[in-house]
Amino acid sequence: MEGILYEVKKVVVGQDNFLERVMVAMLAQGHLLVEGVPGLAKTLTVKTLAQAVHGQFKRIQFTPDLVPADLVGTRIYSQKSGEFSTALGPVFTNLLLADEINRAPAKVQSALLEVMQERQVTIAGVSHKVPEPFLVMATQNPIETEGTYPLPEAQVDRFMMKVLVGYPSEEEEFVIVQRVTGASIAVAAVADTGQLAALQKACRAVYVDPSLVQYAVKLVSLGRDPVRGGLPSLAPLLAFGASPRATIGLVEGARAMAMLRGRRYALPEDLIDLVPDVLRHRLVLSYEALAEGLTADGLIHRMLDHLPAPAKPLAHAEGA
Question: What region holds the Sigma-54 factor interaction domain (predicted)?
Answer without folding.
Answer: 1-141
